[in-house]
Amino acid sequence: MYRNNTPDSRPSSFPLPEDKPEVAALWQEVFHDSGEFTDLFFSRVYKPENTLVTKKDNGIIAALQMIPYEIKTANGILPSAYVCGVCTRPSERGKGVMKALMTDAMAVMRQRGYAVSILIPAEAWLFEFYRRFGYSHPVDCGAETYSSASPPVQAADTFNIVRETVSASDYTFTECTADKYFPYFDRKQRERPCAVLHDASDFETIIRDLACDGGHAWTALRANRPAGMAFAKPAAGNNVIIKEILYDSLPVKEALIRYILRRYNARTAEVRVPRSAGENAGAYGLACILDNRTTNISGLYMTLMLD
Question: pTM for the whole thing?
Fold first, then answer.
């Protein structure tokens, strides 16, 4: 158990194996996610040792997850923890329960040697709440919007791409499978100067998460070799969201977007990109530096975080 100095705080603890259904039920009560997504998270991502809970009268009233990730920075590959699933039972809110739980979580992450912690606030007011715990570094996300009439290729890109002239007919498109196309994804994600990295297991979870929302991961092939990849899901109003797009050249990017617009019969596509590449940018997440191994996480990019 962990105890902190917050007035009236209760000790937090790691849940027992038999607590898993109760943690999942609290998640569902607070976030109202589909049963399919909740089952996916608690079968593939959840681990008791990466979870902190607060109990009252032998029942769990608050919980959070600290999921390990690696982050590529100028200082090399650093261990990090992604804080998510931060939830309190509605009847226990406003009593300092989450403040106490977050204080304990910060201590656990430092003890485990994480260099950075990252999170995505679920609501705008939570940005200020998390800043109290040291989450002072913004993680921004850019957005590009494309029309089904004629999606233009954006000129501002942040990582190595080859400019070439190729017709769309030079590409074929296939649904992405984790075992076959992860090596391409891994190579492209590591080209970014500062980014949260996903391993092979997480890559498969991402693909399954998209399926929960009726989406897919698509690979563009040229001469039967991957040349680009996009993670798309349908959105309201006959639109589509592309949560991530990776590519070898601008024509590949354009071909992928055109294909996805046709595939989903969508009117527009909103594409998440690193801030400097997008027409619009806004606060997406926050990061906290936990030790002195890195002092510069400027431009940190995270995506496909099951948010």
Answer: 0.89
